[in-house]
Amino acid sequence: MPTALSKPVARRADAVRNVERILDASIVCLQRRPSATMAEIAEEAGLGRVTLYGHFASRPALIDAVVSRVLAQGEEMLAAVDLKGDPRTALAQLIRNSWQLVDQSRSIISAAEAELSPARIRQLHDGPAARVEALVERGRADGQFRKDMPTSWLVAVLHQILHGAGGEVASGRLDPADAPERIIDTVLSVLDAR
Where is each HTH tetR-type domain found (predicted)? Predict the structure, then answer.
C-alpha cells in the first residue's frame, strides 16, 4: 500500500523522466530544424504542451537546458583527451575532438544563438574554455604561444573559428572532413609566438 511519502518520490521520478524525454526530443527536433517549435518538441517527446511548459516555461529556457546538456556530454568526451606533452600537438587533438562536437551540434548552436544572449552562451562555455585556457597558458610558458595578447582573447578567437567553421560547413563552402585541419592551421597561426 503506497504511503504519503512514496507519492512525491514517484512524481519526482516521472518528472525526471519527462525532462529527459523533453531534452532528447529537443535535440532530435533542433537537429532537424533549429527553429523547431515547442509544440513540435512536445509531440516528439510524446507529451502534451502543458507538461513541456510545466518543466520549461519558455523556448529560451528549454534551449538553455539543451545547450547545457550537450556541453556536459561534450565535456565527458573532451575530458578524455590527453593534453600532456607538446602544447601544439595537444591543442590540435583538442580541436579535432571539439570539431566533432561542434559539427554534430551545429543546429543546436544556431538555435542557441537565436534564443540566448551572447553573455549566456559564453557562460555556458566556461567549462570547455577553462581547459583551453590552461593549455594556452602552458604553451605560453613553453614559449610556443604568443604572450602579447590575453589568454582569454586567444581562447575567444579559437571559439569563434570553431563556430565559424560550422557556419561555413552549413553554407556548403567547407567540407566537414576538411574543417579540423583548416581550424588547426588557422588557430596555430594565430597562437604562434612571434
Answer: 16-74
The DSSP code for 145 is B
| Calpha distance 64→37 (Å, rounded) | 15
CA-only gyration radius of the chain, Å: 20
Residues 54-97: tens digit of each pLDDT: 999 999 999 999 999 998 888 888 888 888 999 999 999 999 99
Instruction: Return the C-alpha cell found at 185.
Output: 592551421
Helix 179-191 to helix 87-104 angle (10° resolution) is: 140
* 130 SS3 class: helix
- Distant-in-sequence contacts of 161-164, Cβ < 8 A, 24+ apart: 161/186, 161/187, 161/190, 162/95, 162/98, 162/99, 162/102, 163/102, 163/109
Angle, CA of 94, 95 and 97, to the nearest 5°? 65
Q: What is the pLDDT of residues 164-173, one digit of tens each?
A: 998 899 899 9
Judge if 50 and 72 occupy the same domain.
no
Amino acid in the structure at residue 98 = S
The residues with which 192 forms a beta bridge, in sequence order, are 145
Residues 161 and 72 in one domain: yes
Handedness of CA 34, 66, 155, 123 (dihedral sign): positive
Q: Which three cell numbers stand for residue 45?
A: 517527446
Sign for the CA dihedral angle at 131, 137, 143, 149 comes to positive
